[in-house]
Write a structure and sequence with these properties.
Layout: H1 16-27, E1 31-32, H2 33-44, H3 48-64, E2 68-72, E3 75-78, H4 84-103, H5 123-127, H6 133-136, H7 140-159, H8 173-186
Antiparallel strand pairs: 1-3, 2-3
Helix pairs in contact: 1-2
């Protein structure tokens, strides 16, 4: 196999991406990934083991390289063959398909009580998740419990004795200001 764009170059110094780009350019049409890999293997005289060892890296590179574009079905082409408008239209078409799939209503699951009698009535099902006036009313008891908890916490704090507390500690604010001004003078 001969690739005219790579004539005169040593095959041992070529990367798989360079060969793939030249191959697609020479063929002038899109190619399946498997055919690209086989052509690269033939051109670079690589063994099956060498190709297997480097195929995942090559696939990552062909995905991240900006000059290749996947056409679906693991078929690849050069991005330069397509106008930017065509590429955007294909992306929009895929977005529209995804939106259509999202619009389908989801099936509602019904609640089943596997432990109870079938005739048993579940009050949650009847309310359909609507809050009643009782649910929305102010709970004065909960507030009283919170006040009791706060009072108990305050009492515990008052009982705590601090050891080695020197009540005659003085803080000289001027010392802090003097140190800051000394630092700025040194700059």
């Amino acid at each position: 196999m001969k690739i005219t764009a790579l004539e005169g170059q040593q095959t041992s110094e070529l990367s798989m991406i360079e060969v793939a780009h030249a191959l697609l350019e020479q063929n002038g049409k899109e190619m399946p990934f498997a055919e690209i890999v086989k052509a690269i293997q033939t051109y670079l005289n690589k063994s099956d083991d060498e190709i297997k060892a480097s195929i995942s890296r090559f696939y990552t590179e062909i995905n991240t390289d900006g000059s290749f574009i996947p056409l679906g079905g693991n078929v690849w082409a050069l991005r330069s063959w397509y106008a930017i408008d065509e590429i955007d239209e294909e992306v929009i078409a895929l977005d529209e398909i995804e939106e259509d799939e999202e619009e389908k209503p989801a099936k509602k699951r019904s609640k089943v009580n596997v432990f109870g009698i079938e005739d048993e009535i579940d009050p949650e099902d009847e309310e359909n998740g609507k809050e009643t006036e009782e649910d929305m009313s102010y709970d004065a008891e909960a507030e009283d419990e919170d006040k009791d908890d706060v009072a108990a916490y305050d009492a515990e704090l008052a009982e705590v004795e601090l050891e080695n507390v020197d009540e005659d500690v003085e803080i000289d604010v001027e010392d802090d200001d003097d140190e800051d001004s000394d630092d700025s003078d040194e700059d």
